[in-house]
Amino acid sequence: MSDATPSSPTARPVLDIWCELQCPDCRAALADVHALRERYGDALELRLRHFPLEKHRHSFAAAQAAEEAAAQGRDWDYVEAVLARAEELGSRGEPVLVEVARELGLDAEEMDTALIDGRHILIVDADQAEGKAIGVTGTPTYVIDGQRLDGGTSQEGLRERIVEIADRLLGR
Fold first, then answer.
1. Which residues share a beta bridge with 147?
2. Which residues of 31-48 are buried (b: 16+ CB within 10 A; e: fewer)?
3. Exposed, middle or buried: residue 77 (CB in 10 Å: 0-12, 13-18, 19+)?
4. With bands split at pLDDT 50, 70 and 90, how would you rate the model's confidence at 153?
5. Which of 65, 140, 145 is nearest to 110 (CA)?
6. 46 near 12, Cβ under 8 Å?
7. CA 137 to CA 53: how far, in whole Å?
8. CA–CA separation, 128 vs 54, rounded Å?
């Protein structure tokens, strides 16, 4: 999470990406995430926000696992790897989260322990509560410069809208 505020002259713009790691639409949105990274590099902060949906029973654990991966320095790598295995996560559950950690060279035992002790629950709960407060109802949902862009029904035109806003914020 960034402490910088958009009004700060040194702050870079932030794109919050409300995501759920069992969501096929979030997996499809990775193409947009990659394109935005390529276009802006570090000029635009892409910030993962958790919004686990009740219909996906392993999504809350996956969000906690993503936070543990972030604590181990591999947040987006882990998120992308779990999204690539969303169906398997749905059928096999939490063992997939530990396997992905191991495959990425993370401390898999620590990942397992984090899922058991719930050390990241408060982060996930806070993200979800904030998402609900600003009107997030599904994933992916993007927020940039105070504007919420819902991508759960269609990604059509969202990248272009994000680029338009980010370019304005960056003075491009």
1. 144
2. ebbeebeeebeeebeeeb
3. middle
4. low
5. 65
6. no
7. 9
8. 12
* Both structure tokens of 18: 């409300």
SS (H, E, C) the chain: CCCCCCCCCCCCCEEEEEECCCCHHHHHHHHHHHHHHHHHHHHCEEEEEECCCCCCCCHHHHHHHHHHHHHCCCHHHHHHHHHHCHHHHHHHCHHHHHHHHHHCCCCHHHHHHHHHHCCCHHHHHHHHHHHHHCCCCCCCEEEECCEEEECCCCCCCHHHHHHHHHHHHHCC
Helix pair 75-84, 24-40: axis angle to 10 deg = 140
pLDDT, tens only, 69-101: 999 999 999 999 999 999 999 999 999 999 999
Asked if residue 45 lies in contact with residue 17, where contact means CB atoms within 8 angstroms, the answer is: no
Q: pLDDT tens digit string along 110-121?
A: 999 999 999 999
